[in-house]
Design brief:
Layout (H helix, E strand, L loop, with lengths): L23 H15 L6 E5 L7 H4 L3 E4 L5 H11 L4 E7 H7 L1 H10 L3 E7 L2 E2 L5 E2 L23 H8 L3 E6 L3 H13 L4 E6 L3 H7 L5 H10 L1 E3 L8 H4 L3 E8 L5 H13 L1
Parallel strand pairs: 1-2, 1-3, 3-4, 4-8, 7-8, 9-10
Antiparallel strand pairs: 5-6, 7-10
The structure holds thiamine diphosphate and iron/sulfur cluster.
Length: 270
């Protein structure tokens, strides 16, 4: 029997704001399936977001939720976690929210390694404000602020996360719900700062401006631009060139910030 999503949704908030074909709702469902498996009490879960189409997600979720300011979701989330380390804190951010205005918070949150999961709904554009280029807009892709195509190199969310110190790093496409569920579940179970680069298509702005077609054509493009990391060893460097690996890309174990801070306070209070 399929899961009853409405047990986790605020029905009074429906209909949602997302355009037909937008990938954000698909990722939201993956998050709910992972939470359903974990059976965490609703009161123990806090979902925090910044501003953007993706950041509207917590408003639809029947947990403790915080819709904060653009780029600052991680700051609020870290404050919540420090105040009560027993809470399960999840952050939902767009690529603009997490990697542009929130980029500084992103690298330092990775470095700190608090037990928080960040899910970046990455559609390579600023959806909510009309399609401006973001830090993950592909070189050559168009946005309203890059009408002839972006000339900059995009950030790789996963490389940034790993280099900055995140202890679980994964990428998944919304077309592959099974893989998306798997990495979100593992991210939530990781004891430390986890980052999931969740690819989502913005049909209205990215799709139209770049003439990438409808949602299914956009998802096919994303598939063509990526490869499963499990097959990486069997692929030649030419086959992987210019493509993004998907799957669990990195996991390590190192001290979690709140635990370390607790020990420190205990030590200095003696
Ligand atoms: C301080 C501040 N700067 C700019 C904005 C305008 N703004 C709102 S949402 C947004 C971009 C959202 O893009 P993204 O985070 O990629 O999410 P998406 O809408 O694509 O899901 C911007 C620039 C704002 N609300 N606050
Ligand atoms: S503008 Fe783009 S990101 Fe925003 S809801 Fe529409 S398709 Fe989704």
């Amino acid at each position: 029997m399929s899961m009853d999503y409405f047990q986790y949704l605020r029905k009074e908030r429906m209909p949602h704001i997302w355009c037909p074909g937008c990938g954000h709702g698909t990722i939201m469902k993956s998050i709910l399936r992972a939470l359903d498996k974990l059976k965490w009490a609703k009161d123990d879960v806090v979902v925090v977001s910044g501003i953007g189409c993706s950041s509207r997600t917590p408003g639809y979720l029947d947990f403790n939720t915080l819709h904060t300011t653009h780029g600052r979701a991680l700051s609020f989330a870290q404050g919540v976690k420090v105040a009560n380390p027993n809470l399960k804190v999840i952050v939902i951010s767009g690529d603009g929210d997490a990697m542009a205005i929130g980029g500084n918070h992103f690298i330092h949150a990775c470095r700190r390694n608090m037990d928080i999961t960040l899910i970046v709904f990455n559609n390579n554009i600023y959806g909510m404000t009309g399609g401006q280029a973001s830090p993950t807009t592909f070189t050559g892709s168009k946005g309203t602020t890059a009408p002839y195509g972006a000339i900059e190199q995009p950030f790789d969310v996963c490389n940034m996360a790993q280099a900055s110190g995140a202890t679980y790093v994964a990428r998944a496409l919304d077309i592959d719900a099974v893989a998306m569920d798997r990495v979100i579940l593992s991210a939530l179970q990781n004891k430390g700062f986890s980052v999931v680069d969740a690819w989502s298509q913005c049909t209205t702005y990215f799709g139209r401006q770049n003439k990438w077609g409808d949602a299914s054509e956009m998802m096919d493009r994303y598939k063509e631009m990526t490869y499963n990391v499990r097959l990486a060893e069997k692929m030649s460097p030419e086959e992987k060139a210019g493509k993004y690996p998907v799957g669990m890309l990195f996991q390590t174990s190192r001290p979690e910030w709140c635990e370390e801070y607790g020990k420190l306070i205990e030590r200095v209070s003696k």
